[in-house]
Design goal:
Low-confidence stretches: none
Largest sheet: 6 strands, antiparallel
Order of helices and strands: HHHEEEHEEEHEEHHEEEHHEHEEHEEHEE
Structural class: alpha+beta
CATH class of the largest domain: Alpha Beta
Strand content: 25-35%
CATH architecture of the largest domain: 2-Layer Sandwich
Number of domains: 4
Strand order of the largest sheet: 3-2-1-6-5-4
Distance between the termini: 40 Å
CATH superfamily of the largest domain: GAF domain
Mean pLDDT: 83
Radius of gyration: 35 Å
Number of strands: 18
Number of helices: 12
Length: about 500
């Protein structure tokens, strides 16, 4: 279904600023619909060759009330409405004033009371807000009368172009609803009307006496946004807390008459449970982050112990084995370091790759100058995939830097060693290609019978734990020579 902006662009002559004004209106008009217990339509003149004199209308938006059954079972957005079915809409366009009457709706037995409110922007009527009033249950109650009175005042503001407001942060789907609770304040801030839900919210703030006829400040409650709305006519929101268990949101909508503040509608919502849930989530995230941080610290401690033990060893083979073990532990710590910053079930793997490259550059002492180049990215991966893949890539990069250029050229040779890591996703798989321009693999090399512990670890990680594939081949001399290692692992869930 086309959006309001798309419909306005394709079927009307409305300017961009007028469309923005209508978008703000439709972001806030659930308030109008609930206050009037009515279905709402937003109509604009159609700009089509078949529309003689611009007399037909297109429905740009539709809103159903939350506190009463709808009259319109069909979705009318995008439909063309003929002039003879909506003469009051034309009258509102031409006169620029509210028109009231009745209209016949398909599938509705009785005629429906209708208000047609001109929507003015920059001095021009750009659309008409149509209110379709359903039958009330008997005489209007005190609350219904108050709601309808507020709706009447807001309609006057729509016709005067003072509603909706330009402030985006006080409109939209997240704004409180009429059912949450309403306080109606007069021009001096005294409470003229309070719904039961609003009264209950005030009780949670330790205000138990009747507030009607008094200001909130007189009752011991300082709500700065109320004072701001009364003084400057600006909508605003404020959340007031009482300890850790109570949080009440106040959403102020000033009521204006020719630019003068005549009152404020305060939508009151008890958000205590929501804030408590947010605190639980934040505490859980903090706990997970702390766990990863401690795991990282423990791994770094193990790494330091291995490094210290390697320095104390007199056997070269033992020293090398301890150094390799220390590097592998550090590569696992890199993953937990990233998770300690952004805990969750997924991790941005590209951050891990950058740390792995630095790790290899810092820990490997090559006899030949080597440059590591990274191309592409893998994006976000699950943590159960990221950890073993990080260890495998660290092993492969280290292996390339350490062994690819041994006895390859000499001091008199200006050949510069380059190790390239290409990363990308393809057909639901994460692909990593490590290529070097070194001496290549020996004639007797076999991945099935690896000669080093590092390659054994990589093979087992990729094939057994990641359920992927591992290939190692020589690159033809005509293509630059060297070795190409290709790792392909599925990014979907693994058993």
């Amino acid at each position: 279904m086309a959006t309001l902006a798309e419909l306005a662009s394709l079927r009307t002559n409305l300017k961009e600023s007028a469309v923005d004004h209508l978008l703000r209106l439709t972001a806030s008009w659930s308030l109008l619909s609930d206050l009037s217990f009515s279905d709402m339509l937003l109509m604009a003149k159609v700009n089509e060759p078949s529309n003689r004199g611009g007399e037909n209308f297109v429905v740009l938006g539709q809103m159903r009330p939350n506190n009463r059954s709808t009259l319109l079972n069909d979705d009318l957005v995008g439909t063309t409405q003929r002039l003879d079915a909506w003469p009051l809409v034309r009258d509102a366009f031409e006169s620029g004033t509210r028109t009231i009457g009745e209209v016949t709706i398909e599938n509705v037995e009785d005629v429906v009371p209708v208000w047609c409110v001109p929507v003015r922007h920059d001095g021009n009527v750009v659309a008409v807000l149509v209110r379709l009033q359903g039958p009330l249950r008997g005489p209007a109650s005190l609350y219904e009368q108050a709601y309808l009175s507020i709706f009447d005042r807001l309609c006057s503001m729509v016709a005067d172009a003072t509603f909706p407001y330009r402030e985006d942060d006080v409109a939209g789907p997240g704004m409180p609803r009429v059912g949450d609770g309403i306080l109606l304040l007069g021009g001096r801030g005294d409470v003229e009307f309070s719904t039961p839900n609003a009264t209950n919210a005030l009780h949670r703030l330790s205000i138990y006496a009747s507030v009607e006829g008094h200001t909130l400040r007189e009752m011991g409650l300082r709500v700065r946004v109320v004072e701001r709305s009364l003084e400057f006519g600006i909508p605003a929101m404020e959340e007031i807390d009482r300890g850790q268990d109570v949080a009440i949101l106040f959403h102020c909508v000033p009521l204006l008459d020719h630019g003068i503040v005549t009152g404020v509608v305060v939508l009151v919502r008890d958000v205590s449970d929501l804030r408590q849930l947010n605190r639980v989530v934040l505490n859980k995230e903090a706990a997970v982050r702390e766990v990863h941080h401690r795991v990282k610290n423990n791994l770094q401690t193990i790494s330091s112990l291995l490094r210290l033990q390697a320095r104390r060893s007199d056997e070269i083979e033992t020293r090398n084995a301890l150094q390799e073990a220390e590097r592998r532990v550090r590569s696992i710590a890199v993953v937990h370091e990233v998770l300690s910053r952004e805990p969750g079930e997924e991790v941005v793997f590209d951050e891990i790759v950058r740390s792995l490259v630095l790790l290899v550059e810092d820990t490997v002492l090559a006899l030949h100058p080597v440059e590591i180049v990274v191309n592409g990215e893998l994006g976000t991966l699950s943590t159960d995939l990221a950890t073993p893949l990080a260890v495998a890539l660290a092993e492969l990069l280290t292996n390339a830097v350490e062994h690819a250029f041994v006895d390859f050229g000499g001091a008199e040779n200006d050949h510069v060693g380059v190790v390239t890591l290409n990363l990308y996703q393809e057909d639901g798989n994460a692909v990593a290609e490590i290529r070097d321009n070194g001496r290549g693999l020996g004639d007797d090399f076999s991945l099935e019978v690896p000669t080093s512990l590092g390659l054994s670890i990589v093979r087992d990680l990729v094939r057994t734990q990641l359920h992927g594939s591992l290939e190692m081949n020589n690159v033809p001399y005509a293509e630059g020579g060297g070795t190409l290692v290709r790792v392909v692992v599925p990014t979907t869930a693994r058993l």
